[in-house]
Amino acid sequence: MKQLKSILLSVVIFSSLLLGGCQTTDKQTNNKTETAQTTKDVREIAWNSLSDSQKKEVIGEWKEAQVSKTIADTKGFVLTDRSFEGQEVTTVMFRSTKSGLLGDIIKLVDEKSGKVVGAGLRE
After folding, report:
1. How many CA atoms lie within 13 A of 51 on its CB side?
2. Distance CA 100, CA 12 (A)
3. Is residue 122 within 8 Å of residue 93, measured between CB atoms?
4. Could you list the residue range(s) of the whole structural domain that residue 11 is in?
5. Cα–Cα distance for residue pair 99/90, rounded to 1 Å
6. SS3 61
7. Total number of domains constituting the chain
8. How far apart are CA 93 and CA 114, in angstroms?
9. How buried is residue 63: exposed, middle or buried, by Cβ count under 10 Å (0-12/13-18/19+)?
């Protein structure tokens, strides 16, 4: 009887440790998923702000857009919301079939509000 209790106790402890370890792994994976989701949303927000003619000149899919950070200024960008001047924003760049003539399509997105606050200058 004592041996059966010891075995059951060992199984319970082992199961607790195993499940506890899995939970930690799930939390780590979940954080990575949320980061990827945020990036995807920024690209999709920028894509949805494009005109139909701009969408036609994009090379590839919106998911392939390059994402980076920059400081919003009026020297390289047209700001639709001037309150973001001097602040860090996310740059979403879509490769364009007209990049040699006009340059790639660039949108500035504020990740916190989820809105497009400007665009890159094109010739």
Report:
1. 4
2. 66
3. no
4. 2-120
5. 20
6. coil
7. 1
8. 16
9. exposed
